[in-house]
Amino acid sequence: MDNPNIHNFIEILHKTHKEEWEATPKIHDSIVWLSDLFEFLFPNNRLHRQSTYEGVLKKNQIDLENILLSYLDPASIDIGAKVYDFYISLEKIYLDLRADATKIYENDPAATSIHEVIVSYPGFYAIAVYRIANTLSKLEIPILPRIISEHAHGKTGVDIHPNAQIDVPFFIDHGTGIVIGATSIIGKNVSIYQGVTLGALQVNKELAETKRHPTVEDNVIIYARTTILGGKTVIGHNSIIGGSVFLTKSVSPYSHVFNTHQLRIDVKQEVLG
């Protein structure tokens, strides 16, 4: 290790790591905070006594404040105000998620109860983490929303950018492979099935401040493996987009769009000898 190049490399590496470490919330702490919050809203492992609810919530609030203090400069951002505003929004997050869970239950014939949806459906978990991350993002809290969103992505296979705008209620069925880009806008009462992509027509850093992803209006159903691209693409309200459709242009309200590929099945008759 007497090679001066190695020493220089280690010095550069340490400096870079230090700068990035100081500017990033601890991933483990972030996921623990998220898990505790989800457990508080939708208890599964244990039920707190009503008298302890405020204390449990206060601990979660302190944990968030400590996470933010670990990587944000209190001189440039009012961390206390951000934490306060987030928890003021918590009741709305909860009520929105109950509405999401109800829609999933009402639309999925395999669901036996709203509680089953909440404790076992990956689509619901992905929506829950999105609504938490989106609230943090609206408060202009950096990095943390992406960390918890990517945690949900890895756990469920659903990739929802925290900056997407998704109204209530929202239904994800199965979920695996769904991608919803940062500038997507999704209206009320929308249903999306596995493998759907709401993406950009092109990936270009210069377009970062433009609307790159589609708008889906109210009461739309998008079936499996469909790809819809482009910031100017609007799916009109009350439309149905069938499976394996590829769209880069808008469709009017009440449209039914289906893939016209025809499947041919030939049945050979048994030849009797």
Q: What is the CATH architecture descriptor of the largest domain?
A: Orthogonal Bundle
Helix content: 40-55%
Instruction: Give the overall average pLDDT.
Output: 93
SSE sequence, one letter per element: HHHHHHHHEEEEEEEEEEEEEE
Backbone structural class: alpha/beta
Instruction: Calculate the terminal CA-CA distance, rounded to whole Å.
Output: 83 Å
Radius of gyration: 23 Å
Q: Supply the number of helical segments.
A: 8
In CATH, the topology of the largest domain is named serine acetyltransferase, domain 1
Would you identify the regions where 5 or more consecutive residues have pLDDT less than 50? none
Q: Indicate the CATH class of the largest domain.
A: Mainly Alpha
Shape: globular
User: What is the CATH homology-level superfamily of the largest domain?
Assistant: serine acetyltransferase, domain 1
Portion in strands? 5-15%
Please give the number of β-strands: 14
Biggest β-sheet strands, sense, barrel: 5 strands, parallel
Overall structural domain count: 2
- For the biggest β-sheet, the strand order reads 1-4-7-10-13
What does this structure look like?
With 273 residues, this protein is an alpha/beta fold. It has 2 domains: 158 residues, serine acetyltransferase, domain 1 (Orthogonal Bundle), CATH 1.10.3130.10; 96 residues, 3 Solenoid (UDP N-Acetylglucosamine Acyltransferase, domain 1). The protein is built from 8 helices and 14 strands. The strands form 3 sheets. The chain has a 5-stranded parallel β-sheet with strand order 1-4-7-10-13. A 5-stranded parallel β-sheet has the order 3-6-9-12-14. The longest helix has 19 residues. The model has no long low-confidence stretch (mean pLDDT 93).
